[in-house]
Amino acid sequence: MRLDVVSIFPGYLAPLDLSLIGKARRDGLLDLHVHDLRDFTTDRHRTVDDSPFGGGAGMVMKPEPWAAALDHVVQDGTTDDAPVPHLLVPGPGGVPFTQAMAHALAAEPWLAFACGRYEGLDERVYDHAAERMPLTVVSLGDYVLNGGEVAVLAMVEAVGRLLPGVVGNAESLVEESHEGGLLEYPVYTRPASWDDSGTVREVPPVLLSGDHAAIAAWRHEQRVARTAARRPDLAAASATVAGLDDLDVRVAVPADAAELLVLQRACWMQEGRISGSWHIPPLEEALEDVVRGLGEWTTWVARVPSTDGSGRLVGSVRGRVRPDDASVWETGRLMVAADLQGRGLGRALLELGEAGAPQSVSTLWINTGRVSEANIRRYRRAGYRLVPGEGAFPGTVDLTKPRR
Ligand code: JD8
């Protein structure tokens, strides 16, 4: 994965030379480039800021240095496989950065980060960037920092450690907090009995028992108890996501498009990797394509329940009557968030998509990658049968089944 970071404080990113991320860079698993925004100024004072139009406190970052810097990054890193990066701009008003987003971004070949300072970037920089590459404004959390660098340090570490080979024992990634919706269990090491200045502190005996089933059960109980105590919002979510009826399911609206794009990229990166090509529509689509798709297909989104409907978008499916054959119902873009896969959500979403078919339909159709064995098995189990020959798109196969 290639990473580019633009900042007026490039030294702020020095911690990425250390520890696992530093080793991953030396091992060639991460190709990180840090750029000084001032190198893209044209005046002898290397000016990057100016006073805000309309008055107000503080300074605003000028558009020209940013446009020059971002254009340089694209020029410097473009390849056939990854012509442009996914640009992430940290900001207190951005989409919350989550473990699910970290998984999504870890599946992408090239990320770029624009670190703002002062009161932020001239808004036209976002327009300039969005015309050239996918753009997501992302927030580390609901508190105010002085700039984007700290957020980028956190995001590069959270994404980098998910890349194959970065964390030695990938197994240890599985039972962590925010994987599977539960916080992590307490950990202990020697001495089993610790004399803490006269207070003897013991390790829970079950951990010394060698009874792995009992240890696993104790650890899960600890995760559930800790999550309920510290993060009741997470507890509510993870306890209930066993089927669609535990989720807020509704027809998608344009406001869902940004999250749909992130989830769709995550889910199709695996397809891209196993098919050996990133040139597949779900990966190449821009935000406006997703919004247009909402007009051409009936699209359902499934969110974790929340009071204001802003719960995490964890699944989606879409369906439509084939434009040139009203007897065929096409189901597509079936996607489930990485940490919720394997719970039957995909099957439930497929059934939801199929149920949208009007009476005139006699055939249900779906399409997937020719080498996507897991998907083909899943659709066979749902009653579909392979249609001989090439599918509707290069490198794909079609599957159909009669509409019961
Ligand atoms: C980027 C400039 C400072 C923000 C005036 C303070 C992220 N979770 C987060 N909190 N704050 C940021 C963040 C703050 C930034 C910049 C990210 C660029 N500032 C500005 C607006 C109010 N000052 C962040 N991710």
TrEMBL record:
<dbReference type="InterPro" id="IPR000182">
    <property type="entry name" value="GNAT_dom"/>
</dbReference>
<comment type="subunit">
    <text>Homodimer.</text>
</comment>
<keyword id="KW-0808">Transferase</keyword>
<keyword id="KW-0819">tRNA processing</keyword>
<feature type="binding site">
    <location>
        <begin position="140"/>
        <end position="145"/>
    </location>
    <ligand>
        <name>S-adenosyl-L-methionine</name>
    </ligand>
</feature>
<dbReference type="InterPro" id="IPR016009">
    <property type="entry name" value="tRNA_MeTrfase_TRMD/TRM10"/>
</dbReference>
<dbReference type="InterPro" id="IPR016181">
    <property type="entry name" value="Acyl_CoA_acyltransferase"/>
</dbReference>
<dbReference type="GO" id="GO:0052906">
    <property type="term" value="F:tRNA (guanine(37)-N1)-methyltransferase activity"/>
</dbReference>
<dbReference type="InterPro" id="IPR029026">
    <property type="entry name" value="tRNA_m1G_MTases_N"/>
</dbReference>
<dbReference type="Pfam" id="PF13508">
    <property type="entry name" value="Acetyltransf_7"/>
</dbReference>
<keyword id="KW-0963">Cytoplasm</keyword>
<dbReference type="InterPro" id="IPR002649">
    <property type="entry name" value="tRNA_m1G_MeTrfase_TrmD"/>
</dbReference>
<protein>
    <recommendedName>
        <fullName>tRNA (guanine-N(1)-)-methyltransferase</fullName>
        <ecNumber>2.1.1.228</ecNumber>
    </recommendedName>
</protein>
<keyword id="KW-0949">S-adenosyl-L-methionine</keyword>
<dbReference type="GO" id="GO:0032259">
    <property type="term" value="P:methylation"/>
</dbReference>
<dbReference type="InterPro" id="IPR029028">
    <property type="entry name" value="Alpha/beta_knot_MTases"/>
</dbReference>
<feature type="domain" description="N-acetyltransferase">
    <location>
        <begin position="247"/>
        <end position="404"/>
    </location>
</feature>
<feature type="binding site">
    <location>
        <position position="116"/>
    </location>
    <ligand>
        <name>S-adenosyl-L-methionine</name>
    </ligand>
</feature>
<dbReference type="Pfam" id="PF01746">
    <property type="entry name" value="tRNA_m1G_MT"/>
</dbReference>
<keyword id="KW-0489">Methyltransferase</keyword>
<comment type="similarity">
    <text>Belongs to the RNA methyltransferase TrmD family.</text>
</comment>
<dbReference type="InterPro" id="IPR023148">
    <property type="entry name" value="tRNA_m1G_MeTrfase_C_sf"/>
</dbReference>
<comment type="function">
    <text>Specifically methylates guanosine-37 in various tRNAs.</text>
</comment>
